[in-house]
C-alpha cells in the first residue's frame, strides 16, 4: 500500500494556476489502475483545507480515491495558519480521521508579545458525521453538502480555516458551488461530476 504526496491538486484550475490538463488526465488513469494500492493522496499549494474525490474512469458513479489538502502555515490569502494531523489504520493505510489545528491571526496580531494560541478547530469524522474517510463516504458527503447548504457553509468555514477576513466576506451560492466543484474535479476541465452536484444544489435553492 502507498500514500502519494504531491504539491498541486490535479483538478486545479482556479486563480492560483492549473495543473497541466494532460498530466492530470494521465495521472488519473494511473491512480485508477492502481486503486487497490493507493490508500490516499496528500496535496498542498492552495493553502486551503479541502479534499478531492477521484472516480473510476470506467464507472464515474463509483468513487475510488481521495486526496487531502494540508492547508498552510502561512496566511496567504485571508486564511489562518494551520497544520493537520491524520490518523491512519496501520493495517490498511487508510486515513480514518484528521484533525485541524489553527491559531486566530487577528487575535495573535493584537497580542504580538505573546505566542499564538494554537487550538484544534475540528475533527473531520466528528464534524461531518462520517463513518470513515474512504472514497465512498466522502462522495456521499459531497452529495449531502449539495443538499444541505448549512453543511456546505460549514465546509467553507473550515476551508478558510475560520479566518476572520474570509468569514466577513462570506460565501454566496456561486462561491458554494465552486467549493463543491473542487471536491469532485480531479481532471482540469472535466465538469461532469460538478454539473451533477450543481443540479442537486439548485434543487434545494428552488424549493425556497
UniProtKB/TrEMBL annotation:
Q: Keywords for this entry? A: Glycoprotein, Hydrolase
Keyword Isomerase annotated: no
Annotated protein name in UniProt: Sphingomyelin phosphodiesterase C-terminal domain-containing protein
Is Glycoprotein one of the keywords UniProt gives this record?
yes
Give TM segment ranges.
none
Q: Which InterPro entries match?
A: ASM_C, Metallo-depent_PP-like
Q: Where does the record place the Sphingomyelin phosphodiesterase C-terminal domain?
A: 80-194
Organism field: Timema podura
Q: What start and end residues bound the annotated signal peptide?
A: none
Amino acid at each position: 500500500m502507498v500514500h502519494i504526496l504531491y504539491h498541486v491538486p490535479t483538478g486545479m484550475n482556479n486563480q492560483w494556476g492549473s495543473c497541466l490538463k494532460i498530466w492530470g488526465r494521465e495521472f488519473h488513469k494511473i491512480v485508477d489502475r492502481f486503486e487497490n494500492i493507493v490508500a490516499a493522496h496528500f496535496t498542498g499549494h492552495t493553502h486551503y483545507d479541502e479534499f478531492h474525490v477521484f472516480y473510476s474512469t470506467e464507472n464515474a458513479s463509483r468513487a475510488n480515491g481521495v486526496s487531502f489538502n494540508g492547508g498552510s502555515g502561512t496566511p496567504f490569502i485571508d486564511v489562518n495558519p494551520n497544520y493537520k494531523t491524520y490518523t491512519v489504520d496501520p493495517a490498511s493505510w487508510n486515513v480514518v480521521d484528521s484533525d485541524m489545528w489553527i491559531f486566530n491571526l487577528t487575535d495573535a496580531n493584537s497580542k504580538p508579545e505573546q505566542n499564538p494560541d494554537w487550538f484544534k478547530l475540528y475533527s473531520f469524522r466528528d464534524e461531518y458525521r462520517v463513518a470513515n474517510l474512504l472514497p465512498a463516504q466522502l462522495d456521499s458527503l459531497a452529495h449531502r453538502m449539495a443538499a444541505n447548504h448549512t453543511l456546505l457553509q460549514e465546509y467553507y468555514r473550515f476551508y478558510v480555516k475560520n479566518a476572520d477576513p474570509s468569514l466577513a466576506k462570506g460565501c454566496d451560492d456561486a462561491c458554494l458551488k465552486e467549493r463543491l466543484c473542487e471536491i469532485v474535479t480531479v481532471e482540469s476541465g472535466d465538469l461532469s461530476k460538478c454539473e451533477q452536484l450543481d443540479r442537486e444544489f439548485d434543487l434545494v435553492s428552488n424549493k425556497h
